[in-house]
């Protein structure tokens, strides 16, 4: 089955050049560090690198964070952020199939109104990696359901370099 996906006809990135994204996730923190969650809306576009490979751009003009720190039980509501990413992707599955699997990884800049995490900085980097199942709704429209591991940290711009890592669910509507 896996071999059939890898050797079947090309699934080109230009078949799905744009996408709308919704994501939600929670950080996995030790109990003494508190709780954090993220939700966001974004848009993206892909550019074909040849065959099954694509390079894209994603923009999240609206990311919202809730964070509760153990030293401050008051939940920080409405911490807003903006992020951009440049996903490198590989799509496996026949071009006109009812479904395909996309694996992608991305890194990009991240800016927030308040420091993220609480003892972090407003300028950070966002890294994401994960798979997504794409289901064809019509000849030009696909629905994507997937998982992304999302990490935010300042990349040692300032020390210490605290970070947050999230397990997120991603829903996409993709079309041409």
Description:
The chain has 176 residues and is mainly beta. The protein has one domain: Porin, CATH 2.40.160. The chain is 3% helix and 70% strand. It has one helix and nine strands, in the order αβββββββββ. Strands 1, 2, 3, 4, 5, 6, 7, 8 and 9 form a nine-stranded antiparallel sheet that branches. Strand 5 (88-92) and strand 6 form a beta hairpin. The longest helix is centred in the first third of the chain and has 6 residues, at 2-7. The protein starts with a helix and ends with a strand. Residues 1-14 have low confidence and may be disordered.
Biggest sheet character: 9 strands, antiparallel
The span between the termini is 28 Å
What's the order of the H and E elements? HEEEEEEEEE
List the domain count as a whole number. 1
What is the gyration radius calculated from CA atoms? 17 Å
Shape: elongated
Class from secondary-structure proportions: mainly beta
Number of strands: 9
Proportion in β-strands: over 45%
Q: Please count the helical segments.
A: 1
Highest CATH level, the class: Mainly Beta
Quick check: average pLDDT?
83
What's the assembly state of these chains? single chain
Detail the poorly predicted runs: 1-14
The helix fraction, in percent, is: under 10%
CATH architecture: Beta Barrel
CATH topology: Porin
């Amino acid at each position: 089955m896996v071999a059939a996906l890898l050797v079947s006809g090309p699934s080109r990135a230009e078949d799905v050049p744009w996408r709308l994204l919704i994501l939600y996730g929670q950080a996995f923190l030790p109990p003494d560090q508190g709780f954090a969650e993220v939700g966001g809306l974004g848009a993206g576009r892909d550019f074909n690198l040849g065959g099954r490979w694509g390079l894209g751009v994603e923009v999240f003009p609206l990311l919202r964070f809730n964070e509760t720190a153990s030293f401050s039980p008051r939940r920080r509501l409405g911490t807003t952020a903006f992020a951009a990413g440049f996903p490198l992707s590989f799509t496996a599955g026949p071009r006109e199939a009812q479904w395909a699997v996309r694996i992608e990884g991305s890194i990009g800049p991240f800016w927030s109104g308040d420091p993220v995490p609480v003892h972090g900085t407003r300028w950070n980097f966002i890294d994401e990696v994960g798979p997504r199942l794409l289901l064809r709704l019509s000849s030009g429209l696909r629905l994507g359901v997937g998982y992304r591991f999302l990490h935010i940290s300042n990349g040692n711009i300032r020390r210490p370099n605290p970070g947050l890592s999230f397990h997120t669910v991603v829903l996409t509507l993709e079309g041409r």
